[in-house]
């Protein structure tokens, strides 16, 4: 027998009055409880129900989409500074670079993720979408949520906006070129680190024109380069020529420099650091 609150309707008022010496099963619904139902024996007098219904937590639900469609494989990590642990069937996990989470969840085929039986508090949800070789970009990168005494739906959907892919700029010896600007379809998108590596964020599956620029360097251009999520990295961008910096000196005032070009051989290994001095003797 399932009954609502005592004051829910005149019919139930009469029903409560007529109950004598009967076993009644009371069931609570709508929240996550330590016990959802119990049975009580009613006699010819008022009684006190000894069972305490304890609300263990509330549900948090949200959505993950890509171009408006549900998507699988996104990890939603759950963090909090004021809640130390949660009683959840979802296990804890380590998000890349973020430390151990309280728990985490995955969206289903409809793009819906859910955390059950979560106590009140302030939480941060962090979406991570990572393939075998690629980290995908998800917006927003995190969502701050204040959970009160009610089930909650995350109002802002997590959207997979693209993915990140990296590459490298090298000289003729295969050494990385530092501080080279990476130009993608005419727009500067990144800059290389000390080892020559760079990363492009929020790219989509399409063909791009990718080039590198740095003073005194000329690089090959990756024209019509197809970028896909399963690509481990972009092909190396190689330097094809360099500007040479030097000066011409005479040994003494008694000598005069000859006119004309002078051919020299410059090792590629030292082209970035060494100043070449030309000495021409008349």
Automatic annotation (TrEMBL):
SUPFAM superfamilies found in the cross-reference section: Carboxypeptidase regulatory domain-like
Tell me if Transferase is a UniProt keyword of this record: no
**Which UniProt keywords are present, listed alphabetically?**
Signal
- Cellular component aspect of the GO annotation: endoplasmic reticulum membrane
Keyword rRNA-binding tagged: no
Q: Gene3D superfamilies this protein is in? A: Carboxypeptidase-like, regulatory domain
Looking at the record's lineage, which domain of life comes first? Eukaryota
This chain's protein is named Nodal modulator 1
């Amino acid at each position: 027998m399932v009954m609502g609150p005592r004051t829910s309707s005149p019919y139930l008022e009469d029903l409560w009055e007529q109950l004598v010496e009967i076993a009644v099963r009371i069931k609570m619904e709508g929240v996550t409880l330590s016990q959802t139902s119990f049975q009580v024996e009613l006699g010819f007098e008022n009684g006190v129900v000894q069972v305490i219904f304890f609300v263990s937590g509330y549900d948090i639900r949200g959505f993950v989409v890509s171009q408006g469609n549900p998507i699988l494989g996104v990890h939603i990590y759950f963090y909090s500074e004021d809640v130390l642990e949660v009683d959840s069937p979802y296990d804890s996990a380590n998000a890349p670079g973020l430390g151990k989470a309280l728990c985490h969840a995955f969206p289903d085929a409809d793009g819906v993720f859910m955390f059950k039986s979560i106590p009140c508090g302030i939480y941060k949800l962090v979406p991570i979408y990572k393939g075998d070789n690629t980290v995908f970009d998800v917006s927003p990168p995190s969502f701050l949520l204040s959970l009160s005494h009610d089930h909650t739906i995350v109002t802002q959907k997590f959207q997979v906006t693209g993915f990140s892919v990296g590459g490298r700029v090298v000289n003729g010896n295969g050494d990385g070129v530092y501080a080279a600007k990476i130009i993608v379809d005419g727009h500067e998108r990144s800059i290389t680190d000390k080892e020559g590596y760079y990363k492009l964020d929020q790219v989509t599956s399409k063909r791009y024109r990718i080039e590198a620029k740095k003073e005194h360097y000329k690089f090959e251009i990756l024209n019509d380069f197809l970028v896909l999520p399963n690509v481990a990295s972009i092909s190396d961008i190689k330097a094809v020529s360099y500007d040479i910096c030097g000066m011409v000196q005479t040994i003494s005032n008694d000598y005069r420099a000859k006119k004309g070009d002078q051919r020299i051989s410059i090792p590629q290994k030292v082209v970035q650091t060494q100043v070449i001095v030309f000495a021409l003797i008349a």
